[in-house]
Predict the structure.
Amino acid sequence: MTVLVIYPITVTFFYSLRKMKLTSPKDTAFIGFDNYISILKSIDFWYSLQNSIMVMIAVVILCVLFGLFFASILNFESKLKSILMAISVIPWALPPVVNGILWKWIFYPGFGFLNKILYNLNIIEDPIQYLSNRYSLIFIISIVIAWRNIPFCSIIFLSAMRAIPESVYDTASIDGANRFQIFIRITLPLLMPALGIILTFTSISAINVFDEVVSISGYGNLGKTILLEDYMITFSFLDFGLGSALTYLIMIASGILGILYIRSMSKKIDYI
């Protein structure tokens, strides 16, 4: 922990307080919080932050809705349950770069898989440039991230569903509640702790996305997220002072979400 976590965090903080650009190795000086101020005044920072927030909102919504949907399906007793469980984990097991490349083939600006299907169905005459518009690109990136994280969300929801005692459902059925009422009034409220875990996990995943963005849109500005902005500043422009300051801002945001994640995991459910 000292070598791999504490030391890098400490060094990065001191870098963030200095003027440190590798293209001018002799021009270094202590500048305090000027790097942080420069980042907060940067148009590129706010643009990438907006993209990251849009990705985070879309990923959270998709993961919660589809995670709950697939968990409900897997919760039913079936002979195919183990096979379906194994299949559902495949997207989560794929490396992020491979995941991004697969989806890029689907939404390729020319005749990718989706354009080819639409063209063969005579729905379109010319290929749709999915990756040439900021908002469509952000939505595609969100789909890719959500597709990778939905299996994890489904497993969390499924574990929470199976932890609910059957006696609770039996009592509700005796009282005359139908399946919809049981789901709304019993299942959903008891899934709130699991929902807290999922919201935090998916938010952190969306903020720290990098591989999928690079695989789909490269290092261009159109779909640039806050982590990609940090990478470009640090390793492309070699401004380690400014990049370290941005790294700290990302770390603080992820740390806040991480604290919420740990707190949500520590909650206990009372079924009485």
About this structure: Residues 43-74 form the longest helix (32 residues). Residues 46 and 136 are 19 Å apart (CA to CA).
